[in-house]
Amino acid sequence: MTGATNPPPLRTVHAAVAECADRAPHDLALVQGEERVDYRTLTAAARVLAGRLTAWGVRPGDIVPLLLPRGAQLIALQLGVLMSGAAYATLDPRWPASRIAAILDQLDDPVVVGRPGGEPLGVTRTLAPSPLSALADAGADSAAGLFAPVPADPEDLATVFFTSGSTGVPKGVLIPHRAVTRMFGPGGLDGFGPGHLTAQVAPGAWDMYAFELWGQLTTGGACVVVEENHLMPSRLRTLVAEQGVDTLWLTTSLFNLIVDEDPDAFEGLETLYVGGEKQSPRHVARFLERFPELPIWNGFGPAENCMLTAVHRMTPADDAAPAGIPVGRPVPNTAVVLLREDGSPAAPGERGEIVALGPGVARGYLNNETLTRERFPTLEIAGERQRALRTGDLGMLDEHGILHYHGRRDRQIKLSGNRIELGDIEAAAAAIPEIRACAAVARTDEGGTVDHVALVYTLADGAELAPRDVRKRLTTRLPAYAVPGRFEQLDDLPRRDNGKVDLQALERRPG
């Protein structure tokens, strides 16, 4: 629920999981394939891994990059990192080596955990695949199982999410424990806690991974790890019917796909969260016609205000909203204000920048004090000085206090749930010697949802470079989700009177 008068307490992630293990040690925590893990086994395996990390040199306050595939072992390792007093940064082993290197360069000679085999570059310690029960049993027979978690505070760093950066260098968002646990538990969001089961599908490097995972494991619920990269309708049917999944998070584009291809796949769910992109009223209306009683929530928020900032239970009446489906009211332990350009509060019905307040606000950006001061200022709100997040999103509060989203102030977009800085794509393309000038533009469908990114470019005199070669080179510089879907070579880019590239003209181009 939102607007709770008694929101969940702020706790450390690993302490909350340990409480669940103490209360119900044999309750189900994780499922991956044939492996079923209870809370006792999960926490015992995590203690063994915490002891191993400490022996490898991990110390409280460190950031530990993890280059393992999603799964039960990665989850236990993340929990072990937290027990050691450190924070984890989950990186995707499939990312280009140059991107991983750019992230590791921002850290101070870290312990980097990956699979045996030497790939990707940068791994300093390896962890072979192993069932968590084997790790837990080994700990029971050795001192490794006696590891005592390092005392921690909800203000301490828990994880770092590396997001797209406009300079081409990924930005590390510093997330404390309080930001993760603030919306889960009594007085928190619906669909989490004992008896609830969520499908874990989100990439490990994304903040909504924490939503799916820690939302359940800090409250006594369970997660089913979906090993596929995308949740197709037939797989969803199986998860609900055979595994008992009742709570689900989907990106808007994936939700739309399932509504179009097999809406009955949602049968049996009890709570559905959808977000990461602008909602399609047409798809929401079709869903509500089929499942009028199934709660479906529009989830909104940047990684800098961890996971979600606001939610709205969608209804048929939302189709008539002039700005599209609202993003709703703040989640528990979160507040939202709208500010004009001069910093004064925007009146109801007036557009302003969405500013988030409360325990969900990140500590800032890794090694970037200038951007941290810009995006995380201390503001005087209602007579009280509070640390805030300036989201860069524009919104409006209606007369009922419902938040409506009106786009971005900058050139950041969401595509298939992934946040992409168009400047990041341009920086990567500009590094290709044959390209003289370029612009990345977002193309939207009829509902206003970003359909794909196009790279429009010109070549240096005498250069030859086919679109397929541009794509190939960008795959070595960008994660797969940020590689443009279309490539358009022009003789010249359109310009405005001030000489700047006319991005609106490029956005209007067919294709």
From TrEMBL:
<dbReference type="Pfam" id="PF00501">
    <property type="entry name" value="AMP-binding"/>
</dbReference>
<dbReference type="InterPro" id="IPR010071">
    <property type="entry name" value="AA_adenyl_dom"/>
</dbReference>
<dbReference type="InterPro" id="IPR020845">
    <property type="entry name" value="AMP-binding_CS"/>
</dbReference>
<feature type="domain" description="AMP-binding enzyme C-terminal">
    <location>
        <begin position="425"/>
        <end position="500"/>
    </location>
</feature>
<feature type="domain" description="AMP-dependent synthetase/ligase">
    <location>
        <begin position="19"/>
        <end position="366"/>
    </location>
</feature>
<dbReference type="InterPro" id="IPR045851">
    <property type="entry name" value="AMP-bd_C_sf"/>
</dbReference>
<dbReference type="InterPro" id="IPR042099">
    <property type="entry name" value="ANL_N_sf"/>
</dbReference>
<dbReference type="Pfam" id="PF13193">
    <property type="entry name" value="AMP-binding_C"/>
</dbReference>
<protein>
    <submittedName>
        <fullName>Amino acid adenylation domain-containing protein</fullName>
    </submittedName>
</protein>
<dbReference type="InterPro" id="IPR025110">
    <property type="entry name" value="AMP-bd_C"/>
</dbReference>
<dbReference type="InterPro" id="IPR000873">
    <property type="entry name" value="AMP-dep_synth/lig_dom"/>
</dbReference>
